[in-house]
Amino acid sequence: MKENTEIQTFNHLFTNYKGRFVHFARTYVDDEMMAEDIAIESLMYYWENRQKLDSHSNVLAYILTVIKHKCLDHLRQLRIQEDFVEYVKTNETRKLNLRIATLEACNPERIFSEELQELVDKALLTLPAQTRDIFTRSRYHNQSHKEIADALGLSTKAVEFHITKALRVLRVALKDYLPALFFFGIC
Questions:
Q1: Which CDD domains does this one have (predicted)?
Q2: How many helices (H) and strands (E) does the chain have?
Q3: Which of 18, 46, 101, 119 has the fewest CB atoms within 10 Å distance of its CB?
Q4: Which residue range(s) make up the domain with 152?
Q5: Is the pTM of this model over 0.85?
Q6: What region does 153 belong to: left with phi over 0, alpha with psi -120 to 50, or beta?
């Protein structure tokens, strides 16, 4: 008989106070579904622990205290998540700003001009004098194959042969820089 009375008491609490408990929780968690979950979990917690309570305990105050603690736990969890999201966002913003600043400061001419020019000069020094002269006239002085051929008394085929030979040597010597060399029109 006692259990039947307890079930009736619980049903009474659930029917008459669930809406109030949900409203109380929603005031703090600002989420209808979460507030309902918290209210129902709190009622269930009361039901599971009712034997431990003093017979003179204020049941409604007890349930409201449970709801309060569950709301606090939920809000603290949200704060931890937001802090983490903010940390990640700040970190990503910092990385993005660093990439922007680095890219803005990047001067491709300066990066490649000194180091690359040294490598090109070294590679060109390994070429025979005539091949080096033809390549220099073609790439640095923008002379056409015909102009170079006329100036040196060679056929345009011979000029093309020497330029191809120079490019082959440069491609081997500058293999790590090929994308940049193609971009700058050296190879």
A1: Sigma70_r4
A2: 8, 0
A3: 101
A4: 108-184
A5: no
A6: left
